[in-house]
């Protein structure tokens, strides 16, 4: 955790209210945000609208950005997630009638589930990066891969109690990392 805070303290806080800083943030992150939005929405025009909305929201909320909590990239992707969800909600309110009603609603539900799954995976990956290697390995092997503690302990060459302890403290650190990112559990 101290390592994360130190990295955050070393970064200069961009003043997104200034045009040059906002332009630099746009140049650095717009293409990646566009790819993310296009993957989620399946529409290039909608993805461009979402990216524009992301930077408008970032500009309006520039005073709430804290580099000690999350990097600019993470903060922008959190805004992008919300913008994608808002866009999907708006599209559901005004659905296109290109497909029969039941097919359209099933498609909208599957897209929303897909968007949530991708964003949850991305946030979890970002939170796992903030953990120590030992905690990350213990959590990935036991929770994500569903392997028994004794099997993981034998593979790592440590006692089973050590693996259990790493899982316990890893979960605590993961909760803290997700809080820092801004995810409510």
UniProtKB/TrEMBL annotation:
Keywords (A to Z) from UniProt: DNA-binding, Sigma factor, Transcription, Transcription regulation
| Gene Ontology molecular-function annotations | DNA binding; sigma factor activity
Q: Which Pfam families match?
A: Sigma70_r2 (PF04542), Sigma70_r4 (PF04545)
Q: Pinpoint the RNA polymerase sigma-70 region domain residues.
A: 26-92, 127-175
Biological process (GO) annotations held by this record are: DNA-templated transcription initiation
Family membership: Belongs to the sigma-70 factor family. ECF subfamily.
Protein's name in the database:
RNA polymerase subunit sigma-70
